[in-house]
């Protein structure tokens, strides 16, 4: 393919209001050329508004957006070097797959032969060549998704915007399509900006994730950093399964590193670490991922004791609800399911022991 | 079996009541008109010799009809001229209706839901007054010393002493039909435009289409079912329209509604009048049958 590398995007101090509602507030972000970037957030977080501003469907109230070094202020959607894949796919129902994919090229009034050739290559890329003559209503959801992708890519945009690209697909298809999307991105090296509310999707797809809440970008990091080192309580809670416990700091934390905090819910002091020190005087929380907790069926094997109040079997692993002895605290802990020689089975109401290894829990601010 | 095939009394009523209505007020009169159209005219009461006659003591009727009336329609150029005149008149009026109604329907479909109801009300409101009253109002507007001429004179565009002759012209008839039938065009257009997914328009703009390009390639093709429905709703009654051409049109305008009237009331030739009516129906039904099978009208476009 002749497609070049994608272009960088720079968003500087962008704000967008709808009446009293601030959808995006003073947001700045730089995305590198050829990057696969995910904007992750719940509904109303402003992620879709940001995407629509990049496409040109909404105008920022203030701030500026640059694509490939060009200021996009006042540039209408038709003239931007970006294309968008819509959440509903927005395929033209009265056109065949081929006509849909060629639509963008026909607007440029390219020679027929060139259009046909580029459409053919694009249909090959998304493996839709056998369906070129079909209308959208004759396609399955996954096929429609691929047509929408081809239609958005055929103009060789410098940046491709994808609005919840996989949300309309069933779970199994979603997994396959995720990898396909990544492969295509890898091949074309176009900058992809994906908006999603599904943290799992963001983790699998993205090189970097930008987590949004209430119109603000809270953390921009690799999926691994976002999960293992969330910036605050909101992100720790939003991404992945977590035990969030109120913590008391003996003294304000000034620098990242190991800390000892008092956690009343666990009845004692926990040796944790801190990457993003909480604001002085503000609340502090202990972020304890379920997979960090070690469990043993022998109530004396590990230093802490608890009782199993319920469990859910997932096949690959089991999640336990553990009531910590001497407290009201219910902890979620997961353990992979593999044969463990000579070990008693952990069941309903089993008395067990558990441990939180030093440095496995994290302290964050509000 | 839980009696799924048994049709309850209520359901039978719901099915048969409209059916009965259609039989009584559409099929039966149609059969009578068709029968008369095959009969021979005569000076009697009623003024025709029936095509179907029951012989003394016989059960089956005997057919003594004739196709002469239809043959007569073909031979006398007056009738063909009247048909073509009506179709031309209805066609132009339908096109005018479409041109006026499309922007209106588009605007209504794109406005805020609260505004939409008000605008739709305004479109339907004239329908609540008698159409005859509205036509007379139009006469008031178009007459030599009517509102339009006064306004033009006041603006200095025409000499007030030499007003423009609007009444008794084709223009007045087009205006009358467009004015009367406009809601029938706006409503189906609005219904299809309102269903149009706005993200399709955004996708089109995103792919580089201009506003006009989007309209031409996306909006218009997808609203075609509404366009066709609206055109049929306006065109079919406009072809047979009698009142508007009679009141607003000139005496030289030959329209099928007027011919029908003349044959029936002035010439008292019921068989020819019936043949005119049946032929007109055939003229309208056949194209409709063809259109009905087109994919665009079935909304698959």
Question: Can you describe what's shown?
Answer:
The complex is a heterodimer of chains A (366) and B (301). Chain A is of the alpha+beta class and 366 residues long. Chain A has helices spanning 47-55, 97-107, 112-125, 141-153, 171-188, 199-205, 223-228, 233-238; strands spanning 9-18, 21-31, 36-41, 62-67, 70-71, 82-85, 159-163, 191-196, 208-213, 216-221, 243-247, 257-263, 268-274, 284-288, 294-296, 304-313, 317-324, 330-336, 351-355, 362-365. Chain A contains eight helices and 20 strands. In chain A, helix 3 (112-125) packs across helix 4. The longest helix of chain A is centred in the middle third of the chain and has 18 residues, at 171-188. The two termini of chain A are 48 Å apart. By secondary structure, chain B is mainly α. Chain B is 68% helix and 3% strand. Chain B contains 13 helices and four strands. Chain B has helices spanning 9-37, 68-75, 77-110, 113-124, 131-142, 147-154, 170-195, 198-206, 211-222, 224-239, 243-248, 256-266, 270-292; strands spanning 40-41, 48-49, 52-53, 62-63. A two-stranded antiparallel sheet of chain B has the order 1-2. A two-stranded antiparallel sheet of chain B has the order 3-4. In chain B, a hairpin with an 8-residue loop joins strand 3 and strand 4. In chain B, helix 2 packs across helix 13 (270-292), helix 3 (77-110) packs across helix 7 (170-195) and helix 7 packs antiparallel against helix 10 (224-239). The model of chain B has no long low-confidence stretch (mean pLDDT 87). The chains are: A alpha+beta (366), B mainly alpha (301).
């Amino acid at each position: 393919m002749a497609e070049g590398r994608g272009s960088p995007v720079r968003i500087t101090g962008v704000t967008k209001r709808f009446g009293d509602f601030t959808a995006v507030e003073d947001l700045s972000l730089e995305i590198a050329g050829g990057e696969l970037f995910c904007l992750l957030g719940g509904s109303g977080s402003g992620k879709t508004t940001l995407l629509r501003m990049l496409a040109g469907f909404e105008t920022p109230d203030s701030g500026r957006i640059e694509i490939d070094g060009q200021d996009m202020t006042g540039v209408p959607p038709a003239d931007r070097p970006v294309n968008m894949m819509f959440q509903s796919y927005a395929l033209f129902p009265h056109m065949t797959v081929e006509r849909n994919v060629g639509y963008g090229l026909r607007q440029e009034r390219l020679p027929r032969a060139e259009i046909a050739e580029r459409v053919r290559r694009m249909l090959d890329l998304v493996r839709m060549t056998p369906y070129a003559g079909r209308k959208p209503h004759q396609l399955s959801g996954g096929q429609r998704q691929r047509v929408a992708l081809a239609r958005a890519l055929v103009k060789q945009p410098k940046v491709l915007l994808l609005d919840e690209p996989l949300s309309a697909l069933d779970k199994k298809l979603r997994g396959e399509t995720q990898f396909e999307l990544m492969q295509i991105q890898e091949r074309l090296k176009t900058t992809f900006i994906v908006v999603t509310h599904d943290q799992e999707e963001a983790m699998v797809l993205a090189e970097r994730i930008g987590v949004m809440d209430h119109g603000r970008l809270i953390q921009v990091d690799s999926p691994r950093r976002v999960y293992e080192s969330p910036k605050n309580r909101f992100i720790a809670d939003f991404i992945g399964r977590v035990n969030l416990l109120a913590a008391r700091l003996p003294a304000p934390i000034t620098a990242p590193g190991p800390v000892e905090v008092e956690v009343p819910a666990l009845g004692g002091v926990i040796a944790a670490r801190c990457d993003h020190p909480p604001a002085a005087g503000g609340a502090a929380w202990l972020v304890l991922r379920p997979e960090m907790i070690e469990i043993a069926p022998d109530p004396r094997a590990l230093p802490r004791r608890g009782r199993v109040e319920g469990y859910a079997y997932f096949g690959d692993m089991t999640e336990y609800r553990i009531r910590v002895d001497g407290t009201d605290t219910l902890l979620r802990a997961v353990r992979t399911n593999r044969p463990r020689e000579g070990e008693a089975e952990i069941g309903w109401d089993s008395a067990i022991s558990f441990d939180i290894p030093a440095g496995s829990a994290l302290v964050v601010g509000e | 079996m839980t009696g799924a095939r048994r049709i309850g009394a209520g359901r039978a009523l719901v099915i048969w009541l409209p059916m009965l209505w259609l039989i009584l007020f559409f099929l039966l009169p149609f059969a009578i008109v068709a029968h008369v159209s095959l009969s021979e005219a005569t000076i009697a009461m009623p003024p025709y010799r029936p095509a179907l006659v029951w012989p003394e003591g016989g059960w089956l009727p005997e057919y003594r009809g004739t196709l002469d009336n239809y043959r007569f329609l073909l031979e006398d150029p007056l009738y063909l001229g009247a048909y073509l005149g009506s179709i031309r008149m209805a066609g132009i009026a339908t096109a005018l209706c479409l041109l006026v109604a499309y922007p209106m329907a588009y605007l209504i479909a794109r406005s805020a839901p609260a505004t939409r109801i008000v605008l739709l009300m305004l479109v339907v409101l004239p329908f609540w007054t008698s159409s005859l009253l509205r036509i007379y109002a139009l006469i008031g507007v178009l007459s030599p010393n009517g509102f339009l001429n006064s306004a033009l004179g006041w603006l200095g565009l025409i000499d007030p002493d030499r007003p423009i002759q609007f009444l008794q012209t084709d223009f007045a008839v087009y205006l009358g039909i467009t004015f009367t039938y406009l809601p029938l065009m706006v409503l189906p257009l609005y219904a299809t435009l309102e269903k149009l997914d706005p993200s399709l328009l955004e996708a089109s703009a995103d792919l580089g289409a201009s506003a006009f390009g989007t309209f031409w390639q996306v909006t218009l093709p997808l609203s075609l079912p509404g366009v066709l429905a609206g055109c049929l709703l306006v065109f079919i009654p406009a072809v047979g329209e009698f009142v508007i051409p009679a009141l607003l049109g000139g005496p030289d305008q030959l329209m099928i509604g007027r011919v029908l009237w003349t044959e029936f009331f002035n010439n008292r030739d019921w068989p020819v009048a019936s043949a005119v009516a049946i032929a007109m129906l055939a003229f309208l039904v056949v194209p409709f049958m063809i259109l009905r099978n087109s994919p665009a009208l079935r909304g698959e476009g």
